[in-house]
Design a protein that fits this description.
Pfam families: GGDEF. This protein is α+β, with helices and mostly antiparallel strands. The chain folds into 2 domains: about 170 residues, no CATH class; about 150 residues, Alpha-Beta Plaits (2-Layer Sandwich). It is built from 12 helices and 7 strands. A hairpin with a 2-residue loop joins strand 2 and strand 3. Helix 3 packs antiparallel against helix 4, helix 3 runs parallel beside helix 5 and helix 9 packs across helix 10.
């Protein structure tokens, strides 16, 4: 028969092993205390009630720790077997103590850590077998147990197993509900991200959209106010775009928009952000520390677009007009855009495919 290993996190293995050590410590303390009050021969009590049983307990704990370290695939059988062994030693050494057989509940309690029905049933079955074996092999224990007590213990053991099985079922049900809720939350979070992406990104160009532009412009204005920094806004418009649509159709117009968007995306440096403002109009938020670097960057944008040719439109050359507005303290995002738009209008009015800068 192939053994199906049951895993248990190291944290819980350590807790169970620590509990086994505590059992040995408590047994030593309780039996040592009993030695002070016993009417039996103290030497005999010390040997048979304390030393020998305690040695057996420590031997089981040590062997269990070694098996858990080197035979992880046996861990469920090891811990349940150890719990039965500890219980058996304590019962034999103290068979006259009332309710001592209740320590046979220890394997059941250990099995609960595994959260598996088969481990619980294994612990229950081995616990019953250990109890029956002790009754058969150790007559003094049998003499102390009346038939009614034996039946009562087996009934309690069976009832305890049933209750724990019910708790495990309930735990498994709650785990499934939690997993289902977690999966649903993850799905909702992914859908929320997708919706937010759709709300922020232009579907045709792949650039951030009109709404995202104003959000980012507001952030940059706040940063500039707080740090007394500077940045620039460029508003770009594809020249003669209406005639392109009229002559070649909207499909070619879409190709032109994508080509310009790809060009802007490729020219961005860290901190630059390109947007499709709407239609054939784009915006760029960027920061260049000097007028010279600002002029060089925007000129590189104009030239890169000017080099575009659209094969689907018989090698059509694309150009853009650009209006640049530098940050002005006290302006809001709408006034900033109006400044860039006025500069763009001037570029269009004075011949297109050129740059007009306002500061």
């Amino acid at each position: 028969m192939r053994y199906d290993p049951v895993e248990l996190p190291d944290k819980w293995v350590r807790i169970i092993l620590y509990s086994f050590r505590l059992c040995a410590v408590f047994y030593a303390a309780a039996s040592s205390l009993a030695l002070l009050f016993t009417s039996e021969d103290k030497t005999d009590f010390l040997l048979h009630i304390i030393v020998v049983p305690l040695g057996g307990l420590l031997l089981i704990v040590t062997a269990t720790e070694l098996l858990c370290r080197y035979k992880r695939e046996w861990i469920s059988y090891t811990l349940i077997g150890a719990a039965n062994g500890l219980a058996g030693i304590m019962i034999v050494a103290n068979y006259e103590v009332e309710l001592i057989v209740s320590v046979l509940l220890l394997p059941l309690l250990v099995s609960v850590f595994f959260l598996r029905q088969k481990v619980l049933l294994t612990a229950s079955a081995t616990g019953v077998l250990v109890y029956v074996a002790l009754l058969a092999a150790y007559p003094p224990l049998l003499a102390e147990q009346s038939p009614a007590e034996v039946i009562a213990l087996l009934f309690i053991y069976g009832a305890g197993t049933a209750i724990l099985a019910g708790l495990l079922n309930r735990g498994a049900e709650l785990a499934r509900q939690w997993q289902s809720a977690s999966t649903l939350n993850k799905t909702l979070a992914q859908e929320k991200q997708q919706i937010e992406h759709l709300l922020r990104v232009d579907g045709l160009s792949g650039l951030l959209n009109h709404r995202s532009f104003y959000e980012e412009a507001e952030k940059r204005l706040e940063t500039a106010r707080g740090l007394r920094g500077e940045f620039q806004l460029a508003v770009l418009d594809i020249d003669n775009f209406k005639s392109i649509n009229d002559r070649f159709g909207h499909k070619v117009g879409d190709i032109v928009i994508k080509a310009v968007a790809d060009t802007l995306r490729g020219l961005q440096e860290p901190g630059d952000m390109a947007f499709r403002y709407g239609g054939e109009e784009f915006t760029l938020l960027y920061e260049r520390p000097t007028p010279e670097t600002d002029a060089a960057f925007i000129e590189s944008v104009r030239q890169a677009v000017e080099k575009l040719t659209i094969a689907e439109a018989d090698g059509l050359q694309v150009t853009v007009s650009i209006g640049v507005q530098a940050y002005v303290p006290g302006w809001n995002k709408h006034r900033l855009f109006e400044g860039g738009d006025r500069a763009l209008y001037e570029a269009k009015r004075t011949g297109k495919n050129r740059i007009v800068r306002f500061s």
